[in-house]
């Protein structure tokens, strides 16, 4: 399942907003994955994959760093 999200930050808070939420079959799993992705030790939960869309599989996050159009794909290990 693909779920798009955006990150918005102000001076004190970070907000994660789901942009397609009509059919979330396992919302708690999605929240757990995002919590771990934004944790200080996220590399213990994710493997970095090549930024090739064919590597985008189940439980992956395609994350855009900075303001360019390049994505890094992170595979959730669990």
What radius of gyration results from the CA coordinates?
13 Å
- Structural shape: globular
Mean pLDDT, all residues: 79
Number of strands: 5
Structural class: alpha+beta
Task: Give the low-pLDDT segments.
Answer: none
Count of DSSP helices?
1
Strand order of the largest sheet: 3-5-4
Number of domains: 1
Portion of residues in beta strands equals 25-35%
Order of helix and strand elements from N to C terminus? EEHEEE
Helix content bin: 10-25%
Keywords:
3-stranded antiparallel sheet; globular; 5 strands; two-stranded antiparallel ribbon; alpha+beta; single chain; about 80 residues
Characterization of the model:
Helix content is 14%, strand content 32%. The chain is α+β, with helices and mostly antiparallel strands and 78 residues long. A 3-stranded antiparallel β-sheet has the order 3-5-4, with no helix packed on it. Strands 1-2 form a two-stranded antiparallel ribbon. A hairpin with a 4-residue loop joins β1 and β2 (14-18). The radius of gyration is 13 Å and the shape is globular. The mean pLDDT is 79.
Question: Brief description of this entry?
Answer:
The chain is of the alpha+beta class. The protein has one helix at residues 27-37; strands at residues 5-9, 14-18, 46-49, 60-64, 71-76.
């Amino acid at each position: 399942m693909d779920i798009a999200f955006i990150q918005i930050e102000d001076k004190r808070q970070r907000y994660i907003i789901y942009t397609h939420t009509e059919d979330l079959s396992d919302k708690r799993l999605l929240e757990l994955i995002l919590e771990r992705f934004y944790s200080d030790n996220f590399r213990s939960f994710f493997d970095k994959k090549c930024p090739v869309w064919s590597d985008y599989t189940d439980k992956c996050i395609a994350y855009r760093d900075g303001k360019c159009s390049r994505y890094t794909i992170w595979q959730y290990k669990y």
